[in-house]
Amino acid sequence: MSSRPHGDMLRNTPGHDALVLTRRFEAPPELVFSLWSDPSHVQAWWHPDGYATPVYEMDFRVGGRFRYCISDGARQGWAHGEYRVIDFPNRIVMTFRWDSGDPVHDRETLITLTFEPDGEAATRMTFRQEPFHSEAARQSHGQGWSQVLDSFGRFLSSRSTT
Questions:
Q1: Which of 74, 97, 118, 129 lies most in the core, judged by the most C-beta atoms within 10 Å?
Q2: Domain 10-117+141-160 class in CATH
């Protein structure tokens, strides 16, 4: 159940900037989707390289919220959001906002995840986040989310070997 980057890009779209990351996972959409919807699973993989997720709280329903902390041992980063659309096993739409105390950094964005069958037992997952207030913010999120998706891929692969 491997993950490999497939078409990661920072895409300019009319009127705003969007980050679009695509991955192919060797698992059916139902399984990939389910690993985004259970807080015990999400807590295991929701972090960039060098970080852990000591706290992940989730109320996975439309209108429900999530809140989490990532930590590298010396620093912590908190963020939260709300689920807007949950369409099993096709799509999740949620807001995302950092809790750093910096109003520019903490602007709300919208994340849309789509899960599409790719062959008999694989999933093409597209991650889209928008809008960004600057190119630097989009680049930073692109690096972080790419690492989070890599972590998800490793978690998915480890489940197939246990």
A1: 129
A2: alpha beta
Average pLDDT, consecutive stretches of 10 residues, N- to C-terminus, the chain (162 residues): 48 65 97 96 96 97 98 97 98 97 93 96 97 91 96 93 56
CB 36 within 8 Å of CB 124: no
Residue 74: exposure state from Cβ atoms within 10 A (0-12, 13-18, ≥19): exposed
8 neighbors 146 (Cβ within 8 angstroms): yes
CB atoms within 10 A of CB 94: 22
